[in-house]
Amino acid sequence: MATITVAPSDDVAPRGPLSARLSTPQVWGFVLLAPYVLVFIAFVLYPVGYGLWLARHPASYVHLVDDPIFARAAINTLIFLVVGINLKMLTALFLSGFFIQERSWIKWLSVLFILPWAVPSIPTILSVRFMLNPEWGVVNQLIFKFTGDDGPNWLNEPSLALSMAILVHIWKSLPFWTLILMTGRLAISQDLFEAADVDGASWWQKFRYITWPSMQTLYLTCTLLSMIWTLGDFNSVYLLTGGGPADLTHVLATLGIRYLRLDQLDLSMAAIVCALPLVLPLVYVMMKRLSR
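User: That's the sequence. What structure does it adopt?
Assistant: Structure tokens below.
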């Protein structure tokens, strides 16, 4: 009886080590990529995973909901988003039309306009806090000088303090969004505006039928991105009001610090996790728009 010899298949042949199957550029690619992967694991993946692990207990969320400060912080966050983002983006949209004018004094003014965004947050927001001091702040001193009346207690009344925090947030981030929308305006063909001038169109008609249709996608994308960043805006509230008075101006981004100061780490992480239902849908919609 003849014996049939079957040659070993290439598919099941033993393979050499991984380093032998990689080319030199691929090996260097893995070597150069390794530090970034390690940094991502150490400073992003591990902190996020550890925070979620700390906030895993359902009892933490029960205690969080029972705290009236959490309900106030959630309402403040919604007010901060609705008022702050709409005022900021609408103002940036119209200021972008002002700063694209080719006049020398407007160019110099744009340099001053961009300073709040370019300067670090800590000195600028703390300077605003000192200016709003009810006793020796420059704002109340000017009010007393010109009216003879004492100015309001800006940071000791919850509604005023939250309003000031929203205005500081708008003032600090407005130059950035104005610059982004200016690039969108400059990308519009000037032939369209020249044809509209020949037809006798007003500035509102040119904005409605030329500028806005051309910038609508950019504006909506910037609004979504601004909402994501505003949810994580810690500086505008904490540096200006510290969450006071009586913890009534906290937002979700600063509420975690309150619980950390009270040595309640689980509630601190739970407060941050509660912001995820707001952040994740915005991130998803943002990525969908950018992938088109």
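The two ends are 67 Å apart (CA to CA).
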